[in-house]
Amino acid sequence: MKPAIMHVDMDAFYAAIEQRDNPELKGKPVIVGGTIESRGVVSTASYEARKYGVHSAMAMTEAHRRCPDGVYLPVDMQKYRRVSRQLMEIFHRFTPDVEAISLDEAFLDLTGSQKLFGPAEEIGMEIKRLIREELQLTASVGLSYNKFLAKLASDMDKPDGFYRILPEELEEKVWPLPIRRMMGVGGKTSQMLEQMGVTTIGQLAKVNTGLLEHLLGKQGVVMHQVANGIDDRRVEPVRESKSVGRETTFPQDICEQYLLETILFTLADDVCHTLRISGLKGKTVSIKIRYPDFRSITRAVTLEQYTSSFEPVFAAVQDLMQHNYKDGTAVRLIGVTVSNLKKDDQIVEQQDLFQDATAQNRQNELNKVMDKINGKYGGNTVHRARKLTGWDKNRELS
Ligand code: TTP
Ligand code: MG
Fold first, then answer.
1. In angstroms, what is the span from residue 105 Cα to ligand 1's centroid?
2. By CB atoms within 10 Å of each CB, which of 114, 166, 350, 351 scores lowest?
3. Cα dist from 265 to 8, 61, 375, 391, whole Å
4. For the chain, which residues make up each domain, given as ranges?
5. Mutation probe of ligand 1 site: the residue of 7, 19, 32, 44 with most atoms within 8 A of C-beta
């Protein structure tokens, strides 16, 4: 059976959700991101705002400069995650082979689905229709015979796009594109290739493989194959995210250990909540500290068991802080990440003989109740609290 791979990418995801939920924002330049005061960046901009040159990762100050009349909104991750789950559920109606790449993006292997649901194009159109009808959002769909081309296709006709690349269309549709459109070809690599006179994917496809290997190593060989329409990567449905992390940049640098740990406390709580609602557990806990001069350090510790519970994660965080942070040092950003993840049901629990089973069960129950309430009422309806003893309230973070 001929492979049929689909890539779906939602249009202006966070901004489109905000416009959907507040019809007054439709047709307006909407920018979702951090605040100027917190030195935040743009998460995304609606297509109306993009006309002003506003884009993801741009500093908020610059966005305001380019688009002073834009509607600026904070990031509501809980809401976007909820929509993402609904989106993934729609995909799963057509195939179990769904590989989520991010909240708004997934590969679907429709090769086997066609017997049941008809040709891949029809499935693609149906998925777009369901997204529009059930989520009131638009998606761009790319259809082809491998992942690389499917992803390229979903970007060809954005927004609300539908684009297909057949094997015989490679030369006509893909080869004229600039090499920068290839996944993973960053600034330096493309610069080097451009200096050699290789500016399009078609030109890259014709360069001698040995030369590319010499210049770029293995990556060169892969790029050459991909440019020739060869990409054997499978859609990996069980591939979960490799890590779950949260970080925050402070409006002003912070240099008190207790306050930093209190912030880490909240971030760790959020990370663990995300792990649980995603059915994941992790074994490695890391902290990231960025200093005012933008120098960053990451320090990690591996736990004995996979977990999604707050207590062992926060204990590891505190331990890492004690060993790697000197009280009084100014910090610009701090973050927590849990990595080395596994699906809950793939973990064979080791019974720890010395563990206080009652206390552990109580914690599990507490987690379950909190997740349930947060799932039902959304957001951070309930969360753990840590006392800010000795902290001048006026100086608390906004
Ligand atoms: P993207 O799919 O890259 O962007 P988008 O969906 O907003 O717009 P489009 O696909 O139509 O070009 O990212 C999905 C979401 O991820 C985006 O809505 C916000 C978030 N995001 C960030 O928070 N920071 C970033 O730098 C990027 C690129 C995305
Ligand atoms: Mg998108």
1. 9
2. 351
3. 35, 29, 20, 15
4. 1-165, 171-227, 243-388
5. 44
Residue 55 Cα to ligand 1 middle (Å):
9
Rounded CA gap, 302 and 230, in Å?
38
In short, whether 189's Cβ falls inside 6 Å of ligand 1 is no
Whole-number Å distance between alpha carbons of 88 and 123: 15
Torsion on CA atoms 37, 80, 246, 276, rounded to nearest 10 = 150
- How remote is the CA of residue 44 from the centroid of ligand 2, in Å? 9
**54: its two tokens:** 């506003």
Query: Looking at the domain covering 171-227, what would its CATH class be?
Result: mainly alpha
Written as six digits, the tokens of 187 are 């600034």
Tell which atom from ligand 1 comes closest to the C-alpha of 32. 19
CB 158 near ligand 1, within 6 Å: yes
Question: Nearest ligand, CA of residue 80?
Answer: 1
Q: Calculate ∠ Cα 142-83-265, nearest 5°.
A: 120
pTM as predicted:
0.68
pLDDT in tens, 297-339: 999 999 999 999 999 999 999 999 999 999 999 999 999 999 9
Best substitution site from 8, 13, 77, 247 to test ligand 1's pocket, by max atoms within 8 Å of Cβ? 13
**Ramachandran region, residue 118 (left: φ > 0; alpha: ψ -120 to 50; beta: rest):** left
Residue of the nearest CA to atom 8 in ligand 1? 12
Q: pLDDT over 70 for what percent of the chain?
A: 87
* DSSP H or E run through 64: helix 60-66
In the numeric block, which tokens belong to residue 191?
């610069």
Q: Rounded CA gap, 111 and 141, in Å?
A: 16
Measure 251 CA to ligand 1 centroid, in angstroms. 24
**Which residues fall within 8 angstroms of residue 151, CB to CB, at 6 or more apart?**
7, 107, 142, 183
Whether pLDDT at 350 is above 80 = no
**Does the domain made of 1-165 have the CATH classification 1.10.3720.10?**
no
- Direct distance between the N- and C-terminal alpha carbons of the chain, in angstroms, rounded to an integer: 57
Helical residues (DSSP H) of 207-307, grouped into ranges: 209-216, 218-227, 257-277
Q: Do domains 171-227 and 243-388 have the same CATH topology?
A: no
- Note the pLDDT of residue 201: 96
